[in-house]
Request: fold
Amino acid sequence: EIETVNGTWDEPETKYATEYPYNNVMETESGHIVEYDDTPGSERIHIAHRNGSFTEWYPDGDRVEKITKDKYTIVMKDDNVYIMGQCNITVQGNAEVYVKGNADLKVDGNFSADIGGTTTWNSGGNYKVTASRIDLN
Reply:
């Protein structure tokens, strides 16, 4: 169980339901695997590194990616992310966000922050809060 602000979630179980002769597998000498499974109703693609990292696409459109060590994503221009459902982010260690320009946050609903430790605000710029009601405890 991975804890979130309001609950938990789990890594999904694989939807592996292969039937012969629909699964086409290529495995290298060291154990890397590429799998194209055309089993009717259980179609999936599975790409795995021998260390356990993998990406798997399921027949319903779900995708699971598991990385057993570090991940780096480098985008040389713009990056856009659109999530139609809910997004949960849990960081087991520390987290840093550094914005070299301006940062804007817009929330159409309510916004809450639960801070369990000491908070320091150091800013060479302005900090503006606009709300119909602000409760400080």
Notes: The chain is about 0% helix and 20% strand. The radius of gyration is 22 Å. The mean pLDDT is 92.
